[in-house]
Amino acid sequence: MTFILKFINILCLFFLFQTCNSNEREFELFYPDGKLRVSGSYVDEQAHGFWEGYYSNGQLKSSGEYYKGKLVGRWVWYYEDGTKLKDSIFSYPNFNE
């Protein structure tokens, strides 16, 4: 439980600093019935930050982070019934670029 709380705090700080960027815009895509399909953000017209995708039944389809349009860190994909399909780790780019 302590790990989860620390993780949530780190995520909140991450989003706090991300929202200070004036080139950032939130993105949400919905199914025709109004349920959320995708949520994330763009910075300088590239996917950047934490993203989630959902099936039409509301079940989480995928979650992970983008950095300047590239998949980074841990990404997890799920079947429509909620069981894990794939769990991948993507490397981070050279931050000096």
Question: How would the blueprint of this fold be written?
Answer:
Layout (H helix, E strand, L loop, with lengths): L1 H17 L5 E7 L5 E8 L2 E2 L1 E6 L5 E8 L2 E9 L5 E7 L7
Antiparallel strand pairs: 1-2, 2-3, 2-4, 4-5, 5-6, 6-7
- Silhouette: flat
Unreliably modeled segments: none
The level of helicity is 10-25%
What does the main sheet amount to? Answer: 7 strands, antiparallel
Note the quaternary state here.
single chain
Element pattern in H and E: HEEEEEEE
* Average pLDDT metric: 85
The computed structural class is: alpha+beta
What distance separates the N and C termini? 37 Å
Portion in strands: over 45%
Instruction: Write down the Rg.
Output: 14 Å
Number of strands: 7
DSSP helical segment count? 1
